[in-house]
Every structure is written in structure tokens, then in C-alpha cells.
């Protein structure tokens, strides 16, 4: 009433919208719809996108609840489109007040995906159903891009994404798995050479997350096999429902686009009851299909810069086997090195600016955590923050040839830290590197040196993708009785481009 008396249309829009929400919670849908439409109209009349997207979203929920699926989808799409240009501001406000935040916009995209999946199952024609499945995948993809942008607090991700192309026609032996965790179920969208397929797994998100956390905690323990029941349960949910289709298409490489907790686990160590997943498939992860540059590695131009610490500095223990890693790279590829006191931030910057390298290998202590400010790589003279590393690798952004591969050896991500893996994938992506190889936890550096040396050796074979080169390196450790426990070989993740 006060807003109407004052002629304050912005406040009136909020008053009507929140009143509509109160009726929604009381299941009085007709009144809720009427109020929400009025709120929407008023927000449009004063060009107030920060409230408009909320009422478009609310209208979508109400229409879905009253069975008007197509109208609901239209309304959700309008909300996502209105939110897009102002999303950064909306996210920043979240830290100052109750209006919105990164997690409060996630449901918008997931609810839209849910509606599109429902619509696909009600659609008769194969082609039309495929369209809805692709739209559902794109809704989640839009959220993932936004999430990565929020993690780094800037728009470089958009610049990287603008250069890339979406590819649905993958190489014939590759499948991309898109797990979408809804509160009551898991949906697997699988991109196969024949098109997109949808598989429903009856497991609630809470139960799945609980299993993921238990597996992640136990698989790191080298002295026990307590991880095994969890590795088998996760295999049953994530892989077993796809086995028939994967076999039918003779798939040899699986690319996972993981959500939330799924980013924190080594898929290679999932177990079918008789063997590990890595024995069947080469594996890679990417934060989003539209965020991956789908060109294969150009081996003829590979030029290495290797940097690392073998000595103890700043209270961190020595990494003696980094020297072995460096020696094996030198033997296979030649290249330049910055070891110990030569590994200083300023020197690294000069080398990257002037050297024309295509592979950067860093063997040092490092940590990735939820807070990008608390993530770093150790150099001889200090700590290289994510912002600084991004700036260094970002020197490649403006070149014809980007950084092909960024390898981070001896680093770790926080346990149970779903967004830390964004740091791993994101640094590569945001800085314009096509691929990154990194570890989920700190491992015995002798095992790490063996695996990474074998990876680079396999990479020399032009008929092998990076994913297959990593698979063979992991198998080498798995077949060695000393290193057969997955704690040694499974935490290595290949991120982004797997070709």
C-alpha cells in the first residue's frame, strides 16, 4: 500500500512478488499466479531485472505446479536470460545480504533442466525428445560456466568460452557422461555417437553425496581396502546402468562432466567387483563441454618448461623425486628447467613470456581450496597465488598457440571441498591452457615421478590421446605390487581437453 501511495514501482514489484510467494507456500495457486504476474508487469515497466528474474522464475514454478509444463519452461528460460547480464552483481550482493547468491541461483538452472527432462519423457518423436535433452544439458552447462566465473570473480571464463565450439559429434570411441544430481534422483545424460541418451538412477542426492564422501576419505588410505564397498556402490550407480550402451558403441574413453561432490573423487578407482574402471576406459574430466577446446595435441611443436623444488623451503618438506621427473622429461623431450633457487616467480614469468613453451610442468607443493585466495603453488621465494598463476599462464591467451598442457605434480585439493577441483580445471581453462594434469591429494613423490614419467613417455606416441597416455601410466602403477593400491595411481586427473 505504501509503495502504491508513493508511486515506488520497484518496491511495489517486490511487495507483490513476495506476497505471491506467500500464497505459493500456502498452495493457493490462483492468487499466487495473479500476484506474481502483477509483480512481473511492474518490474518490466521500471526495467528492474534484479527483481524481474525472480518473478519470472516464480511464475515458472507456479505454472509447473499447475501442470502447464510448456509455459513453465518458457518462463524459466526468460528468468535465466534476464539473470545472465546481472548475475555477477547478484552474486556479489549475496555476501552482503539475503537477496541472492551462487547457491541461490543454482536451483533456477536445475529446476529448468528438471522440467526439460520431464518434457523429453512426454515427447513422442525421437528428434524432438533429443532437443529437450540437449536443452536440459545446456541449462546445467550455463550454471557451470557461471559457477566457474564466480569462483575466479571475473569474466575471463566467458572470453575463453567464446573461442570454443560445442561439439556433440565426438570421436566414435568416446562417450561424455553428464551426471545431474537432483534431490530425489540421479539423471545420467550420456552423449554417444548415436546421440544423447538419458538414464534414471533411483538414488537421492544426499545418499549419493554420503557415499562419495566415504569413498573419498577411505581411498586415500594405502593400508586398507575399506574403500572397496564404496567404490563398488558408486560404480553401480554411475557406470553399470550404461554398460550395455558403452559396449554396443565400443567406447574406450569416458569423459565425465561432474557436479558438486563428484568432482572430488578419482573415477579411475571405481570398481565393478572384479576390476577397476581404469582397466576398461581411459578417463578425463571437464567442468563443461562448452568449456573444452576439442582439438587434438600437436606433438610436433611440443616445447617443455619444467619448474620445481626438490629441497625443503619455507617449512615444507623436500620433494627429492621431482629431480627424477625433471630428468625423465629432459631425456624424452629436452626443454628448459627452473629448479630450486632458479624457480622464482619473476624468473618463471620471464620464461613464459619469452620462451614459446607449449607444456608447463610444475613439481612443487600446492593447495587448492574453496577460496581462490587460499590456493597457491610454492616457489623458492614465496607462494604463487591462483591470480598470479593465471596471469602467468594467461600470457598464452594472446598467442596463436595456447599452452597445450599444464601439469601440477605434488599438489592437493581440500578433502570434501567440491569447488577446489574448479580451481584445478579452472586455472587451466581461465588461463587458456587446453589441458591440465593434477592430483586430488598429495601422494608418495616416488610413485608420482614414476607415473608422470610414464605419462610423458606414452604421450610421444602420436596415435594415443592424452587420456589413453594417462590410462597406460596408471595401469603401469596398478600392475606393480608396491603401487597397486589406488591411493598411488588414482588421484591423477586429466582435466579439459583429453585428445
Note down, in words, how this protein is organized.
The radius of gyration is 24 Å and the shape is globular. Strands 6, 7, 8, 9, 10, 11, 12 and 13 form an eight-stranded mixed β-sheet that branches. It has a five-stranded mixed β-sheet with strand order 3-2-1-4-5. α7 packs antiparallel against α8. Helices cover 48% and strands 15% of the residues. It is built from 19 helices and 13 strands. α13 links the parallel β6 and β7. The N and C termini lie far apart (62 Å). With 499 residues, the protein is α/β, with parallel strands linked by helices. About 1% of the residues have low confidence.
What are its keywords?
48% helix, 499 residues, 5-stranded mixed β-sheet, 13 strands, globular, alpha/beta, 8-stranded mixed β-sheet
Topology:
Blueprint: H1 2-6, H2 9-25, H3 29-45, H4 49-65, H5 69-83, H6 87-94, H7 102-121, H8 126-152, H9 156-163, E1 174-181, E2 186-192, E3 195-201, H10 205-219, H11 228-238, H12 243-248, E4 253-256, E5 282-285, E6 304-308, H13 322-333, E7 336-339, H14 345-354, E8 359-368, E9 376-379, E10 382-385, H15 386-393, E11 405-413, H16 420-430, E12 435-439, H17 445-459, H18 466-478, H19 486-489, E13 492-496
Parallel strand pairs: 1-4, 4-5, 6-7, 6-8, 8-11, 11-12
Antiparallel strand pairs: 1-2, 2-3, 8-9, 9-10, 12-13
Helix pairs in contact: 2-3, 2-4, 3-4, 4-5, 5-7, 7-8, 10-11, 13-17, 15-16, 17-18
Low-confidence regions: 97-102
Could you give the distance between the termini?
Answer: 62 Å
Radius of gyration: 24 Å
Globally, the shape reads globular
Largest sheet: 8 strands, mixed
Helix content: 40-55%
Number of strands: 13
Amino acid at each position: 500500500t505504501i509503495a502504491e501511495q508513493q508511486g515506488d514501482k520497484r518496491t511495489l514489484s517486490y511487495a507483490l512478488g513476495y506476497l505471491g510467494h506467500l500464497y505459493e507456500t500456502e498452495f493457493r495457486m490462483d492468487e499466487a499466479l495473479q500476484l506474481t504476474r502483477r509483480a512481473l508487469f511492474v518490474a518490466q515497466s521500471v526495467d528492474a531485472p534484479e527483481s524481474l528474474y525472480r518473478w519470472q522464475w516464480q511464475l515458472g514454478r507456479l505454472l509447473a505446479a499447475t501442470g502447464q509444463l510448456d509455459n513453465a519452461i518458457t518462463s524459466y528460460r526468460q528468468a535465466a536470460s534476464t539473470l545472465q547480464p546481472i548475475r555477477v552483481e547478484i552474486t556479489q550482493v549475496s555476501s552482503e545480504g539475503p537477496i541472492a547468491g551462487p547457491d541461490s541461483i543454482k536451483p533456477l538452472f536445475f529446476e529448468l533442466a528438471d522440467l526439460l527432462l520431464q518434457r523429453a519423457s512426454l515427447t513422442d518423436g525421437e528428434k524432438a525428445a533429443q532437443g529437450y535433452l540437449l536443452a536440459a544439458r545446456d541449462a546445467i552447462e550455463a550454471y557451470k560456466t557461471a559457477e566457474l566465473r564466480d569462483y575466479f570473480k571475473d569474466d575471463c571464463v566467458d572470453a575463453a568460452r567464446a573461442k570454443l565450439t560445442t561439439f556433440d559429434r565426438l570421436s566414435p570411441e568416446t562417450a561424455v557422461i553428464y551426471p545431474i544430481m537432483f534431490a530425489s534422483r540421479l539423471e545420467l545424460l550420456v552423449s554417444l555417437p548415436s546421440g544423447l541418451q538419458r538414464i534414471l538412477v533411483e538414488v537421492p542426492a544426499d545418499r549419493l553425496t554420503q557415499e562419495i564422501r566415504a569413498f573419498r576419505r577411505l581411498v586415500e588410505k594405502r593400508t586398507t581396502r575399506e574403500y572397496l564397498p564404496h567404490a563398488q556402490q558408486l560404480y553401480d550407480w554411475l557406470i553399470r546402468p550404461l554398460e550395455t550402451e558403452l559396449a554396443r558403441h565400443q567406447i574406450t574413453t569416458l569423459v565425465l562432466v561432474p557436479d558438486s561432490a563428484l568432482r572430488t573423487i578419482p573415477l579411475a578407482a571405481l570398481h565393478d567387483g572384479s576390476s577397476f574402471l581404469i582397466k576398461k576406459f581411459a578417463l578425463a574430466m571437464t567442468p563443461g563441454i562448452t568449456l573444452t577446446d576439442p582439438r587434438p595435441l600437436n606433438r610436433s611443436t611440443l616445447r617443455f618448461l619444467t619448474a620445481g623444488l626438490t629441497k625443503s623451503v619455507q617449512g615444507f618438506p623436500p620433494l627429492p623425486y621431482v629431480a627424477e621427473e625433471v630428468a625423465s622429461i629432459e631425456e624424452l623431450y629436452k626443454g628448459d628447467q627452473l629448479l630450486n633457487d632458479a624457480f622464482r616467480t619473476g624468473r618463471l614469468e620471464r620464461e613464459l613470456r619469452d620462451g614459446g613453451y607449449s607444456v608447463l610442468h610444475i613439481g612443487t607443493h600446492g593447495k587448492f581450496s574453496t577460496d581462490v585466495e587460499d590456493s597457491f603453488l610454492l616457489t623458492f621465494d614465496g607462494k604463487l597465488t591462483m591470480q598470479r598463476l593465471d596471469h602467468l599462464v594467461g600470457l598464452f591467451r594472446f598467442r596463436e598457440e595456447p599452452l597445450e598442457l599444464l601439469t601440477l605434480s605434488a599438489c592437493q585439493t581440500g578433502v570434501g571441498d567440491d569447488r577446489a577441483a574448479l580451481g584445478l580445471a579452472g586455472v587451466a581453462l581461465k588461463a587458456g591452457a587446453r589441458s591440465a594434469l593434477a592430483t586430488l591429494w598429495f601422494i608418495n613423490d616416488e610413485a608420482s615421478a614414476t607415473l608422470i614419467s610414464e605419462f610423458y613417455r606414452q604421450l610421444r606416441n602420436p596415435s594415443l590421446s592424452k587420456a589413453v597416455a594417462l590410462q597406460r601410466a596408471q595401469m603401469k602403477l596398478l600392475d606393480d605390487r608396491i603401487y597397486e593400491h589406488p591411493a598411488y595411481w588414482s588421484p591423477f586427473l586429466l582435466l579439459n581437453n583429453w585428445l
